[in-house]
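Let's do one together. I've listed all components of the complex below, 675 residues spread over two lines.
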Amino acid sequence: MIIYQYDKSFEGLLSCVFEAYERKIFPETLQETGTPLPLFYDDAIQVFTDPLKANRVWKGLTHKLSPAGLSVIASCWLSELPESDILLFRYIRKAIDAPSSIELQFGDPDILKASQIAKKVNNERLRVIQFIRFQKTIDNTYFAATEPLYNVLPLVTEHFQDRFSDQIWLLYDVKRSYGYYYDLHAIKEIQLKDPVRILTTSPQGNPLLAPDEILFQKLWQTYFKSIAIQERINPQLHRQHLPVRFWKYLTEKKSL
Amino acid sequence: MDDAILEKLKILAESAKYDVSCASSGTFRRHQHGSIGSANGWGICHSFAEDGRCISLLKIMLTNYCMYDCAYCINRRSNDIRRATLSVTELVHLTIEFYRRNYIEGLFLSSGVVRNPDYTMERLVRIVKDLRTIHRFHGYIHLKGIPGASPELIHEAGLYADRMSINIEIPNEKSLQTLAPEKDFQSVFTPMRHIQQGILENKEDRQKFHSAPRFVPAGQSTQMIIGATPDSDRDILRLSSALYRRPSMKRVYYSGFVPVNSYDHRLPALKQPPLIREHRLYQADWLLRFYQFKVDEIVDDAFPDLDLEIDPKLAWALRHPERFPVDVNRADYEMLLRVPGLGVKSAKMILVSRRYGKISGSQLKKMGVVLKKAQYFITCHELPFQTIHEIRPERIRQLLTAARPPKEDPRQLKLIFEP
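Okay, and this is what the predicted structure of the assembly comes out as:
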């Protein structure tokens, strides 16, 4: 078994692809640098991330795959699933070796798997777009926290920038503790020291929230309750469409 | 903005909730400098109510005072319910503040009819005009057309709204006359025609001048109440199919009748809304719109009502065993769509992946094609499954409708009592 060790970054993965083609030795496993090696292996190669090599691989891929195929690679990477890197390695290798685009060849297990993961990530991206709830803070920033299954925040900023370009907003991934801040001009990646302070709202309100924020949250809750038709209540369908893991940050599911 | 608006919102949302439509699709509008919001083209559901229906738009009535006395409607004038009216500023403020917090995709505005249709329509138009021109709101607006409103007002409304809808409510005119003596089909179909004309003219204009303002870019929709009158599914689906033949009609919604005015003896006494019938009608509607079915294939004089036990496509397949089995490696797209259990996605997936080689049954499974129903109607290049010709249609029906035993929970300890 041949193992490549790299720094678990996307550029690192692309560098691994470059190295593999250069050495003509293809790994069966990818590992993060520093993790203990398994008991039986033939060769372990340390790959150093090189942006130049990564760029060359990515540029090559743009000739082999359509934008949809490239986004499969990007989404699959953002899934952060344990085996996704070696899966992507095989996907990229197949894309490079094939004479024509392979992205629709769903008979192949790797290509099918990668596109299924990409689909899941995309679904999560859509859910984040749907279920983000902004709270207006005292300095007119609209703040929203979320804990998506996959690391989809980089994929949703474009939508929010287009839609809310005239308001300052901050999207925060509590699970991965980073977020994006939009200051009316550009989006910046930030890390908060204490996100919980902004998140916790008590009935007395949160001193960090704008004065009319609680009123609008109450209005939304009232609306949410009144719009349901009592004769048709269907909790199972409700949970299916609105997964419970999002309730924590949903205004309408919060008790005020 | 204070707590008084809480009450108003409650009353008016409750009055508006029987309108089914909540779609926010069909318009793509990027953000422009100095305006609020955008529209996506594909709809975004921002929440789901406890009845499982999507909340995409702020669905609200301007007022629930109404001069009509329609038997099926909660807002009829003889009902003793709480009434309220929103002011223009209140409504605009609510919409924009909700929008900025990502609660909604836009506004669905409807209204009870006050004084006369034109007066009501004029007030609706004023609100959407304010939203679009003064507040530069670029989100989605769905505006209800008031039956009997004048063409000029309908035209002006169309310049600001993304989608307009005028509800038919009752699928045949005779029943409409009994339940809503003050309404007739003409007052519904005339404004519908005006909207359609406007859309077609606008299409031509925009081919010549790219900057021509858009007119109801997301088309129109309508709604029918199911189960309030003795009309069969054939009548309903024939009307829908006739409506879909018009170029501007995007959706027909079916609303299972909720007995809101149980004291009215013109209405049937239902224990609960006909939810399964509504579901089957939607399935048939999808067959009409995406699966290239004709209405006579789904319901005809021999089968005027949809089968409640099985879906309309399966029912059609069981009536036509001669069209099956279908070879997934050879059949064209139209025929793949007709296989029960294969949807648009699965059919397209099969089409693209069979270019690279023959597809086997196990590959179908891996692709995510659900074979529960499809297995009886397809063959692959492998040994054929047991198809509809080996196991008769009646038996397939039995197999597919058999009640499944409840799922066993492995954590539950079983106590066996021997008698």
